[in-house]
Specification:
- About 75% of the residues lie in helices and about 0% in strands.
- It is mainly α.
């Protein structure tokens, strides 16, 4: 068999094993009047722009203008496809067809990947229609070939990342209010992306083209920017797919390990990038400078606190299937699941590990260090918010999302209340109260017009003491052993008819209401 025959045979086999969600959505979009209309409209805009450019006397401005028009039309098509991706998942989850999709046995991750792949294929279809006009722009002069190639590669990549983010947003919640809210946020975000890309394409000769020239010359700074952009693109897609798959996973199963692993890998990734850049720039700047490592440690602590907001607020007890997922497998998997597994205790262990590694970066400058102060504030907010949500407010905070809202509310109250109280105070008492605020406290000790350090302030020692107590509480939570006794009951968001009392059925209606 010839090479062409082998290639065709391989493609046929691959097509037979294609993702069902990919095939389904591509077929739907190719029959959708909205998609066909948007695609034809972009071709009409490209055709009119080409005619106008060919009639212009100034070839340089004609080529540049045609390139900008085609790039903007293509960007608009990518944004419309991303919005269609969001609507596709939202529509499937709200309809009865979602039960049939779940009955196929496809993992949630495979569902999300199939939708994102369909978005990428539709974007390549746009490339097939609009890329020839970009070649015409190059023939009219005024635009260089690397910029044309960059646009042909970058726009499908932009469509892939926008589609993955939109798909992840569609997986958040299943009720009408959440769907409408996330749809509005996605629409506003896509409008912002379109406006930003319009500005980038309009100023190509002053931004993208010189940077591409530096990349082709092999300049270190330009190659670093290219690597950071590609790395960020891959990280955004991976995080969106994993988070979307976790949100579609049933709550009784393990939906924590994937997001936690991605969060930690992204953290390790940007730490490696930072250390690598500092090593390359070590000839110009001192790599062991206090400000450098304090900034790195502070950013890492903030990342760990954001991780703890989602990890510590999970349920303390886990379901039997979640416990089975944590105890099964080999020795290394069981060890990793002690930090990545579901449950508040395992989340506290992972949070403590990230905090300790972050503080170890600037341990030489303790205790007068911003990273240590932020870690204390973060532990205080996490544990106080967790105690309030599981104690006085446990009636209203019975799920992890509501507990996260309680923790964020606690942070706002702790940040604003001391600032309001300090308005009626003067002298040392005012400084002491301001030090207790997570918002005003860091400026209290690290502003340019304030020379008092943490170790020289009573408020600073109070924050360190409270932070130590909160960290001990976090350690206690980390040592807790979960029991596989938790039960996940159906909620109205699951579209389960047993959760809604039926009217006009008499005893059945009453029994259903009591069960709910």
């Amino acid at each position: 068999m010839t090479i062409a025959g082998r290639t065709i045979a391989a493609l046929v086999i691959r097509a037979e094993r294609a993702n069902p969600m990919l095939v389904r959505r591509v077929r739907q979009e190719l029959r959708n009047r909205a998609f066909i209309g948007a695609y034809l409209l972009s071709l009409v805009v490209a055709g009119i722009s080409a005619i106008i450019a060919s009639k212009m006397s100034d070839g340089a401005s004609a080529g540049q203008g045609l390139f900008v028009a085609i790039a903007i039309a293509w960007t608009a098509l990518m944004c419309l496809q991303a919005m269609a991706t969001h609507r596709a998942i939202t529509g499937d989850r709200a309809a009865a067809s979602w039960d049939l999709i779940e009955l196929t046995g496809m993992p949630p991750m495979r569902m999300v990947i199939g939708v994102v792949q369909s978005n990428l294929i539709l974007g390549l279809l746009g490339a097939a229609g609009l890329a020839p006009f970009l070649v015409m722009a190059y023939l009219l002069r005024g635009i260089d070939l690397p910029t044309i190639v960059f646009a042909i590669i970058a726009l499908p990549m932009l469509g892939a990342v926008l589609g993955s983010l939109a798909a992840c947003a569609a997986c958040v919640g299943n009720n009408k209010n959440a769907s409408k809210g996330m749809g509005l946020l996605v629409a506003v975000g896509l409008i912002g992306v379109f406006a930003g890309m319009w500005g980038i394409w309009a100023t190509t000769q002053h931004g993208v083209s010189p940077w591409l020239a530096e990349v082709l010359r092999g300049r270190t700074e330009a190659l670093l920017i290219l690597g950071i952009v590609l790395n960020s693109w891959a990280a955004l897609i991976a995080a969106s797919l994993v988070f979307g798959g976790a949100l579609l996973t049933h709550r009784a199963l393990n939906r924590s390990s994937g997001p936690r692993l991605v969060w930690i890998l992204i953290w390790i990734n940007w730490l490696a990038w930072f250390i690598g850049i500092m090593w390359l720039e070590s000839r110009k700047y001192p790599i062991w400078d206090e400000e450098v490592w304090t900034g790195l440690g502070t950013a890492s602590v903030l990342w760990a606190i954001a991780f703890g907001l989602f990890a510590v607020t999970e349920d303390i007890d886990v379901t039997p299937r979640q416990l089975q997922a944590c105890t099964g497998g080999g020795r290394w998997r069981r060890l990793a699941m002690q930090f990545l597994g579901p449950g508040s205790a395992r989340g506290a262990r992972a949070t403590l590990a990230m905090l300790l590694v972050s503080l170890a970066m600037c341990v030489a400058w303790m205790p007068n260090n911003l990273a240590l102060l932020i870690a204390c504030y973060g532990c205080i907010v996490l544990m106080l918010g967790d105690i309030v949500s599981r104690g006085p407010l446990r009636t209203w905070c019975q799920t992890p999302p509501t507990r996260r809202v309680a923790v964020v509310t606690t942070a706002i109250v702790l940040g604003v209340l001391p600032s309001l109280i300090s308005m009626f105070m003067t002298g040392d008492s005012k400084h002491f109260v301001l030090a207790l605020s997570p918002f005003a406290g860091p400026f209290q000790f690290f502003s340019y017009n304030h020379s008092q350090t943490i170790a020289e302030s009573v408020g600073g020692w109070a924050v360190l003491g409270l932070g130590g107590i909160a960290m001990l509480a976090l350690i206690r939570r980390a040592l807790h052993r979960e029991a596989g006794i938790a039960r996940i009951t159906a909620s109205p968001d699951d579209a389960n008819p047993r959760t809604k009392p039926k009217s006009g059925i008499g005893k059945n209606s009453k029994a259903t209401a009591e069960a709910q």
